[in-house]
Amino acid sequence: MLRSFVVSRRRWPLKAPFRISRGVKTAAETVMVELRRGAAAGRGESVPYPRYGESVEAVVAQLATVAAAFESGMPDDAVTAMLPPGAARNALDCALWDLRARESGRSVAAMTGLARPGRLACAVTVSLDEPDAMAAAARAIADAPVVKVKLDADRVEERLLAVGQAAPNSRLIIDPNEGWTIDILRDVRPLLARLNIALIEQPLPAGEDAALAGFDPPAPVCADESVHTVAQMQALKGRYQAINVKLDKAGGLTAAIALLAEGRRLGFTIMTGCMVGSSLAIAPALHIAGASDFADLDGPWWLAEDWPDGVTLAGGWMSPPGRGFWGEPGEVV
């Protein structure tokens, strides 16, 4: 049986700069794996993240180390096990799920028991900027049920108030991306208690989680950078009340399913998140999002151009990609 393993990279310009506490990006850099086995083909996309020591070049090199194993007929699970959790394994794992769906004639939803929602509320992000600019961005998406607010350690209350007043009917997820100290968190607690806050995402640097013990948050504190794998989750108890499941961190849909199950067992609120990437990265995550409390999957919304027939996001509601785009029987789009 003919097998092939092809890795490619792509740069997706953004329609506006995306700023967080760690910096600004103007394009998304992604890596795609395309697998063929006989007549069937599958695709998966990942977004290498410098915060985790990743680069496009390194992820491409990681994937090159397992290509021969796949092409020689090694079992799928054994091939993915050759890679550590992260972007490389995510692209491979998602391509394998897509491939198996097309080979078997069964959708990923049928194989996993996790239905892809027909429509779901999806957070829309206001990136870090001057308060007036953040207010204008929030006003433009004020019909969204959930708005995510990127912050750093400066002018926190001014920026939060600007967004809260511009989108008074939206619930807010605030995300300092590890940019706060416990003192900042304590200082802004009274304001957070007055605003319509849904989640406080990763306020402190990963590794400084112990400072959260004993803090009484006005909304669930959500671990992002502090949780990648199931092995890390038990240590989050008493510090966090929620976790952000991202396929790029976990290493694919398979690992994300395990995180979802363990998070539910431990009583965490679950958010499904993403990096800034295309609809091909979001399509697998929709299966986790459908079983989550919150979805933060607006990565493709930031792109100047996305895959044809990909996900759509309007008014804070996401609709899935077209039939056969990913994870369903049929030809690759």
Number of strands: 14
**Computed CA radius of gyration, to the nearest angstrom:** 19 Å
- CATH C-level class of the largest domain: Alpha Beta
**Oligomeric composition of the shown chains:** single chain
Q: Numbering strands along the chain, what is their spatial order in the largest sheet?
A: 5-6-7-8-9-10-11-12
Shape: globular
DSSP summary: helix tally? 11
Strand content: 15-25%
Low-confidence segments: none
Order of helices and strands: EEEHHHHHEEHEHEHEEEHHEHEEE
The CATH architecture of the largest domain: Alpha-Beta Barrel
Give the class from helix and strand content and strand pairing: alpha/beta
- Mean pLDDT comes to 96
Distance from first to last alpha carbon: 23 Å
Query: CATH superfamily membership of the largest domain, which one?
Result: Enolase-like C-terminal domain
What does this structure look like?
The protein has 333 residues and is α/β, with parallel strands linked by helices. It folds into two domains: 3-105, 2-Layer Sandwich (Enolase-like, domain 1), CATH 3.30.390; 120-319, Enolase-like C-terminal domain (TIM Barrel, Alpha-Beta Barrel). The protein has helices at residues 56-64, 67-71, 76-80, 87-104, 108-112, 131-140, 156-166, 182-194, 247-250, 253-265, 279-289, and strands at 3-20, 23-37, 40-46, 120-121, 124-126, 146-150, 171-175, 197-201, 221-223, 242-245, 269-272, 294-295, 312-314, 317-319. Strands 5-6-7-8-9-10-11-12 form an eight-stranded parallel beta sheet. It has a three-stranded antiparallel beta sheet with strand order 1-2-3. Helix 1 crosses helix 4. The two termini are 23 Å apart.
